[in-house]
Amino acid sequence: MDARKAHKASSSSSSSTSSSKRLKYDVFLSFRGEDTRKGFTGHLHAALSDAGISTFLDDNELERAEFIKTQLEQAIDKSIISIIVFSKSYADSSWCLDELVKIMECRERLGKHVIPLFYSVDASDVRNQKGSFAQAFEKHEGKHEKEKVQRWKKALTQAADLCGEDLKNADNGHEAKFINKILGVVNKLLDIKSQLDIKHPVGITSRVKALSNHLHIENSGSKDDVRMIGIWGMGGIGKTTLAKAIYNEFESSFEGRSFLENVREVTNQPMGLVRLQKQLLNDILKSEGVNVDSVLKGIEMIRRRLPCKRALVIIDDADDLHQLEAIAGARDWFGPGSRILITTRNQHLLQQVGVDGTYIAEKMDEEEALEFFSWHAFKRRYPEYLDLSKRVIRYCQGLPLALRVVGSFLFNRSIAEWESHLEKLRTSPDGDIQKILRISFEGLPDDTTKKIFLDISCFFIGDDKDYVTKILDGCGFYATIGISVLIERCLVTVNEQKELMMHDLLRDMGREIVYENANGRPEEFSRLWKHEDVTNVLNDESGTEKIEGVALHGSYGTRFSAQAFTNMKKLRSHKK
């Protein structure tokens, strides 16, 4: 390089040597300023910085100073990778050649990575000091000591022998594509894969692989398609974690990327959709100056400015069509090869936007659940209290949210405390788990659908779907559409025998809602399903007009009088 002073990608460093010693860079750029500073190297530096890669670049506006050489050597020492831009007059500069010697010494001594780039020069000219390099050394040999000149020549030969990149071999000299290729090499060497934090990614690898089959990111036949894919599943099953893993795995394959987290929650805040649009634009355009003051303006800016960008966009926890219409209303809003990934609890929402595929998020199997729980309960891969841990696994039924919440609560507690808490969970569901699961219930479109969910959770789990539909239709509940909505929202499933099923924690959540609405007094429950509660209320004839349904089983016999039902004026059904 020419006269230089340490300069970070984001700002110039302090002029003091002590300050520079504290700096650490991902990449050190060695180049001939007058050849490439305002062109190729400037663009390369900008691309590295935009990708979040800390890059050392000289500041040519600063005056030459005696300590500059020391700073440069320290910067090379503290950089993980050195990129050498060999251009026609590179060897004219003794500064560049001194840098090169230092770079190759660090490679030999410290195992540093070195990437030689051949910009409008042949590698053979660099290796053998021919062409413009021969002319440069004719001048050096008369001005510098012979030993120094020999060190320079040796360093050039060693660098040219490394596996480098040649501009003329990269898409016929297309500089933008050449820079993108270099970014890929740098990312691979730095192993930049975990930009989004994922704690204890148990079982993630297989799920990423399965979801990748929908995304077709590395499928050359689909490289120009814009694909929109959904991840669908109940609350707490790990949709966001999987989306983060996809982002981390593939973000370097895209020109722009944006992870819009908690879309449902953000949208409920003032100007929430506008904030999301602004984040999307800033993320992909790599700018902080995008001004969006209305949803309509945001839509127009996205449609106008992003079609030129091949982008990876994650829309996490969407629950309303308006959100998607404002953020990703059409595929042509994004450049060829873009991928839009939507996580949601609402399958119908994915159908409304016409996704190209839907990945159904799967609960953890027993082995995965045990390991995931152990990380939270014991901070290790395998549990200490195996039998107690397996009881927790059975309770959580493969739901990562529950495994994390219960595991974290039980961390560093005694066996007696474990036993006590597990006993408590049998009758009183964990509040943190219920809070997340209840979002799906609260988001149901109307009170009738909510009543259908509560009826199923209290009375009809394991019953034939058509049988239940007939009963609930008789109550005026329009159960055909109601049950369909519950299935779309992951609150109810239908097994191969066409029986209605429900995760135990969702069942507990529904029953807890009944408890809460009656302050725990069975005679005021909207639904009575427990043998003990039914017996007490009917024997005492204490039922109120709040009771809408009662589960009567054969074991009760005919001991209850008709008078016991007199005050149940809203009673619409009972199950035998």
UniProtKB/TrEMBL annotation:
InterPro entries: Apaf_helical, Disease_R_plants, NB-ARC, P-loop_NTPase, TIR_dom, Toll_tir_struct_dom_sf, WH_DNA-bd_sf, WHD_ROQ1-like. The keyword Lipoprotein does not apply. Residues 23-190 form the TIR domain. SUPFAM superfamilies: P-loop containing nucleoside triphosphate hydrolases, Toll/Interleukin receptor TIR domain, Winged helix' DNA-binding domain. The keyword Acetylation does not apply. One of its GO terms (biological process) is defense response. GO terms for molecular function: ADP binding. Keywords: Leucine-rich repeat, NAD, Plant defense, Repeat. It holds the Pfam family WHD_ROQ1. This is TIR domain-containing protein.
